Amino acid sequence: MMFVTLIKKQFTDIFQSFFIDKKNGEAKTKKKTVSSIVFFIIVMVFVMGGLFFNLAFTLCSTLVSLNLDWMYFMILTITSVTLGTFGSVFNTFSTLYKAKDNDLLLSLPIPAKYIILSRLSGVYLLGLMYSMIVFIPAQIVYFINKPFSFSALLSTVIFGIIISVIDLVISCALGWLVAKISLKVKNKSIVTVITALVFFGVYYFFAFKSNELISQLLVNALEISDTIIGKAYVLYFIGNAAAGNLFNLLICAAVSALLAFCAYMIIAKSFFKIASSSQKEKKAVYREKKVKEKSALGAFLSKEFTHFIGNPNYILNCGLGTILIPVGTIILAVKGQAILQAINGNLPELKAYIMPVAAALMCFMAAMNDISAPSISLEGKNIWIAQSLPVDTWTVLKSKFYLHILLTETPVFICAVIISIVLKLPVLQALTLIIFVSSFVCLNALTGLFTNLKSPNLTWTNETIAIKQGMSVLVAMLGSWGYVVVLGILCYLSSLVLSPALFIFIAAVINIILCLLLVKWLRKKGTRVFESL
């Protein structure tokens, strides 16, 4: 009974977002709950499931006609395990080792194995849910192309369970590794950001290459199958198990059960130590030293910067442009001459639009930074601290503006200079480009502050809500992109009257005027709005 209660609690925690509004911590109405569940089902079953149904449909007919059923199942099994692991691994560390109620449960007369198994049930459920998004469509497509049989259906169910167990084992292994590293690493947010960026990079690489890889696979299927059988027999073995080979299926089931048992034993041995431990910190030893006095603005800016780099969600959702702009600069620096030569050779009439296109690309990347947009909301219930300090309110707002400028303007300015050199822009055009993109960044930062003051959310229960949701965040990114698109259309329509370079100069002047108007509003009305929040 105690174990069942723990499992119910674990499942309730996983699906809490369906029933609790994280903006204010209150229970959702039945209408909102049903809407959330229906939306989740649509996304998971029809959107994501549809994508993998299409992938399975593309592969199945060709591979089955070549009697390569095992290869079909091997590919979809690897995809299923990958998605299942991804869907649960980010939850494993926080659920298993760093759950907020670990200390409470460990202090109660509850056997540790019940706590561990209930935690693992949550990890297993998430892995099962995500892996089946791939595996079930794969099986449906397979039965469309092959005659249905009860034995094939039974082997499908058994192998689906095997996949879910493998997901659990891999997720636990990665979660355990993260837990061990977390005890040694001081700044976890940077590690989280780097890990996420690596994953996104790998994901988008395969996403862009997927059609090419599938085409090569289908054209060279027989040669690839011979290579796999000769050099990676275990993949051939697993593919045959998924295709219904009884002996292979039993071996895979036994191996997965053994791995699950080993994972449980390792977790059980280290669970208490990791779950109850805190990061070791060196004992502070006082040493007299000189401290450089900071201005009020410097102190607030330092606080904003520390908050930013200490929150991986803030970095990834609001500061991705700071990372992508240098990457884009490198790509344009390397490929710029080739692009320029291609335009001059094939489309010489587009040469006049090179500078506006470069400006648009930089603005799109800069708009991915909406650091100032949630900055007021992130004050949350502690906003009274900034309001009560003997500091000018405009200084508080400036610190939020300057953080956006510091992290966005610097890479954008460097990018504009390098692109001007690579594209061999005339001096006046280069200056116009630099002024335009720089003024755009300022306008974006000020607009974020303006909209957040107009529609703040100070009652959130999780910072992620303030960072990801809200009118100010939506306006900061989509509004900026829309502004660039409108300017691009006007630039094209006015090309008979104005040169593109002259239009960009006029747009830069408009940006500066809008910035001055927003600064005037923020200094007068904006400060009063902040003080009244």
Entry keywords:
533 residues, mainly alpha, 2 domains, two-stranded antiparallel sheet, 20 helices, 2 strands, 79% helix, globular
Structural class based on helices, strands and sheet pairing:
mainly alpha
Count of alpha and pi helical runs: 20
Distance between the termini: 48 Å
Q: Give me the Rg, rounded.
A: 28 Å
- The run of helices and strands is HEEHHHHHHHHHHHHHHHHHHH
Percentage of residues assigned to helices: over 70%
- Tell me, rounded to a whole number, the average pLDDT: 82
Would you identify the regions where 5 or more consecutive residues have pLDDT less than 50? none
Work out the count of structural domains: 2
- β-strand percent reads under 5%
So what's the overall shape?
globular
Largest sheet: 2 strands, antiparallel
Number of strands: 2
List the strand order in the largest sheet: 1-2
